[in-house]
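Re-run with default settings, no changes from the original entry. Doing this only to confirm the output is reproducible before filing.
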Amino acid sequence: MTSAHLYAASRTPFGRFGGGLAGIRPDDLAAATLTSLVAKAPDLDPALISDVYWGNANGAGEENRNVGRMAVLLAGLPTSVPATTVNRLCGSSLDAAMMASRAVETGDVEIAVVGGVESMTRAPWVLPKPAKAYAPGDMQAVSTTLGWRLVNPTMPATWTASLGECNELLADRLSIGRERQDAFAERSHRLAAAAWDEGFYADLVAAVPGAQLERDESIRPGTTPESLAGLKPSFRPDGTITAGNASPLSDGAASLLIAAESAAEQIGVAPLARIAGRGVHAVDPQDFGIAPVHAAHRALAAAGVGWGEVGAVELNEAFAVQSIACVDAWDIDPEIVNTRGGAIALGHPLGASGARVLGTLAHRLRDSGERWGVAGICIGVGQALAVVLENTNV
């Protein structure tokens, strides 16, 4: 078996719900980041791309079922380049990266493109199909933006609680209070703003044609613990989770180039990192926020690495409380986690977030000279994924 390497990463700025990317279709977002990614491989003949693996969580509207293939066609790649669309909800594009890396390792694929997209703004409402024609009575349209929809009535109620309520339960169980969550959220905004100001995202983020947005739109540089403390709880009258310490609804796309080490000459750049380990884990649906703990343990075991050797962690940051819970369980230095901000500040376009965290991790390792890094993401309905990267340039 050969090894799989990450050669390049690119993403769009992430827009707020109804914000700067609201007018851009998800298939066009996907095509935009695919185009910017291929431009980072100066010698690559796009016809040599063996397969495209694309993540998308909603897929109920303009994605047209297989948004990966739509992106290939809209980006003007050769029609001979195939593509599939992967759905593991928030982990979709990290799952796509894991699939691509396995295909490279087995020799089925030499050069793969990975990515993900979500327009939570443009996610449509859906109507259940009636059991018979001309059914009497009203019918309710259901939003496909986030969370459960058209729930099977045989599902236990504890499994189908809202994502926010699930994390309130986690806060209760682990005694993670509001003050600690708000402090975590303030750090995310502060570090994300600083990363943009310092130029970290300059070669990671490419503008979207037809949109004016240049930076991630949800970052609030002036956020303070005091301003966060003034926000009302979102899910319980006396709860701890607010719009300020949870990730926002977002629009955006992200992409990665994953290939064999032998493909470096065809691509025209050296790889950033080796994909050294992968991990997947599942728990009770309401406990999804803590699921990255064991996914990361499995990925590290596969890589043959211990936490003491890890110099950088990228955790998606769906909610401050679940991020704190994972960091506590790993018993690591919190200062190595999300040093360039996380989803609370940057945004969380579901299908794009996995590729975003993996691309950010590779660039952090490149800049810091650290050898080992972990990318993890929690997934609604009780799942999580993690990937270990090795910086092979140290």
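The mean pLDDT is 97. The domain at 4-121+248-390 is CATH 3.40.47.10 (Peroxisomal Thiolase; Chain A, domain 1).
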